[in-house]
Amino acid sequence: MMPMQRKALTAAVTALALLFARSAGRAQPPAPTAPQLVILDTDIGDDIDDAFALALVLKSPEIHLLGITTEFGDTELRARLVDRYLKAVGRTEVPVAAGVQTAAPNHFTQAEYARQEPDRPHPNAVVFLFRQIRGHPGQITLICIGPLFNVQAAIAHDPVTFRKLKRVVMMGGSVYRGYDGPGGAHTPPQPEWNILNNPAGARALLASGVPVYMMPLDSTQVRLDQPAQAQIFAHGSALTDQLTLLYHEWSGTGEWKTPTLFDPVAVTYAINPDLCPVKPMHLEVDANGLTRPAAGAANAQVCLHSDEKAFLNLLLSRLLN
After folding, report:
1. What is the maximal distance between C-alpha atoms in the chain?
2. Pick the CATH number of 36-319 from 3.40.50.1760, 3.40.50.300, 3.90.245.10, 1.10.3720.10
3. What are the residue ranges of helices labelled H in 31-74?
4. What are the pLDDT digits (tens) for 67-79?
5. Where are the alpha helices (DSSP H) in 136-225?
6. Which residues, 6+ apart, have CB-to-CB distance to 227 below 8 Å?
7. How far is CA 30 from CA 27, 33, 34, 37, 139, in A?
8. What is the pTM of this model?
């Protein structure tokens, strides 16, 4: 090899070595995070916010939906509603299980939508929940957006297996703020619907030993105003078409026109907790369904204030994408 060629080769090797050293020293991009395993427990069919919560779950890549369990009242009819919804959006691979049947004093506003789906047997929700927990111990987030009858039954049946949930994220409770009055005026704490209809279930959950993340009325009274409704209802996707149908069945049975998106806030916490920061609290649930702060070790992480603007932006971006 000629001297000039040797010098050129040496320079090239040196340059490559420097490039490799610099590349090795750079921070590598983080590996993609695997979607979290989720079961959604819902009393879909009464208010409209459950339908929006399910839509957000289906449009969130941060979530791998293991299944949906129905809650409160006629849980078989609620399961048929979910069947029709999932079929319409091409997600029939998601299992649907029917929960504990109970009395329900309220009106099932979206029952006709559900009745148009053929009836079929559904798995038992508690059995389904335990099967998933045993298959994925310590990995499942249970998102509860209805009265906690399925949770109560599961804890009573096998509290040890129930404790193998990763966490429960729930919509429920009223800590310092009740249901808003006219014009959005804040009111004192009052029994919130999900807790009111099963205080014993809430007490069982808070004592279960599973980490509980609670989204109460304090942080979930987010209104979907007319311009946002118009964007969703005019969008024309399979998913927004189901929301449109269900919204009109809901709004046609009363004076409601503006949905309050209580339940999607719980889903949002599961995928982006920065929008609803939590603080540790000890809560006691009385026989009337009030969730009162009290002295003692924390039994829940509670979101008292949410970023409503960011939440709505997230919801619309997902539904309209």
Report:
1. 96
2. 3.90.245.10
3. 49-58
4. 999 999 999 999 9
5. 149-157, 159-162, 193-196, 199-206, 217-220
6. none
7. 9, 8, 12, 20, 21
8. 0.90
Q: How many helices (H) and strands (E) does the chain have?
A: 14, 10
Could you give the CA distance from residue 151 to residue 130 in angstroms, rounded to a whole number? Answer: 11
Give CA 50 to chain center in angstroms. 9
Q: Which amino acid is residue 271, in one-letter code?
A: I
Please name every residue paired with 96 in a beta bridge, in sequence order, or none if there are none. 68
**Dihedral, CA atoms, 154, 160, 166, 170, nearest 10 degrees?**
30
Cα–Cα dist 269/143, whole Å: 10
Q: Residue 84 in 3-state DSSP?
A: helix
pLDDT number for residue 257: 87
**Sign (positive/negative) of CA torsion 301, 179, 41, 89?**
negative
Please choose, from the candidates 155, 132, 171, 146, the residue with its C-alpha nearest in 3D space to the C-alpha of residue 266: 171
What are the tokens at 191?
């029994």
> Where are the chain's structural domains?
36-319
